[in-house]
Request: fold
Amino acid sequence: PAAGERGRAAQGNKRGRFCSCFYSVGGCALGAILILKVGCYYHRAFSSQMVSIQQVVLNSRPGKNGQPVAENFRLEEGTLPEDLLEGQVKVHTRYLSVDPYMRCRMNEDTGVDYLHPWQVSRVAEGGGVGVVEDSKHPMFQKCDVVTSFRWPWQTRAVVDGNVLKKLDPQLVDWHLSYFLGIVGMPGLTSLLGVREKGHVKPGANQTMVVSGAAGACGMLAGQIARLEGCSRVVGICGTDEKCHVLVHEMGFDAAVNYKKDNVAEKLLEYCPDGVDSYFDNVGGQISDVVINQMKKNSHVILCGQISTYNKDMSYPPTLPAQTEAILKEKNITRERFMVLNYSDKHAMGMVQLSQWLKEGKLKVRETMVKGLENIGAAFESMMKGGNIGKQLVVVSEE
Reply:
């Protein structure tokens, strides 16, 4: 993370950097005119070379009950078309995101209607951010910073401009990776999840527990819960290092290492009056323990269930009968939250997140892996909990 932060710091506000080298001599400008002087005559020759790129495809499926590994992905050489069609945009990839939800895209059937499966030997896609190099779309021009939920895992790409969204780099002081984290989908998921499903009331002395608390959403959800009015925030994660980060950097009141602590006992210690809201990123046995200690009329924010993503089961998975009985007896709401259903609040949310970031009220942690060729390893590590904060792949910082 420190190396990534130094790289972004060096980036600073040098806006011109993003446009300075795109069309240098000997680069990949298409249709470049070479003027050749022969005696007193000039002959023109046109270079129409293709642009070489690198791309990552799905090499194999891990199976619905298998653990994804780096070898499920394959790096290939590719080319881009010489000319853009109307409506197309050529982009240079800066950062790519790897996220838990992508696990279901490795199956032949994702199990949900809003995500399509990746196809074997076809380029994978996901969240990405980059810079426009050329455009035949009226909404975009060279040097625009753009993002997409359907960004190809390529060093450069030609995409339909309709899948892109133009970004204001000033929102993140030109730290473009933040558009895939704190001021992107993870940030919006955390903010809107807490606001729409958490029922947090300032001054009500409420306690929120966050599972998967050292991940991209969990780390932000805990901080946002505090900003929205929770008097106590407790995180659950998988290492002592993560616990230390949550308490000493992110402002959590306490953190539980579920791999070595007795979660039930620790929650009784840290939440003696019970739990008012639970931001659930993991599901499974951890969630059963948390729900058992929730108050009457409390609320579960069902964000993710990463503990079940490598298993062949429905989403969200069916709860044990005992846990279902507790929900009913205590009148606990447990509603699935999908940030895509709140698109009308995204712009407002990004402004709020940006403001908190600039005021120092939200802290950021990123785990950076450099090189498109390492995206498979980054995905495998993220699924095993190897990241602290947002897991990202640096494709280019030029």
Residues 185-197 form the longest helix (13 residues). Residues 169 and 176 are 7 Å apart (CA to CA). Residues 1-48 have pLDDT under 50 and may be disordered.
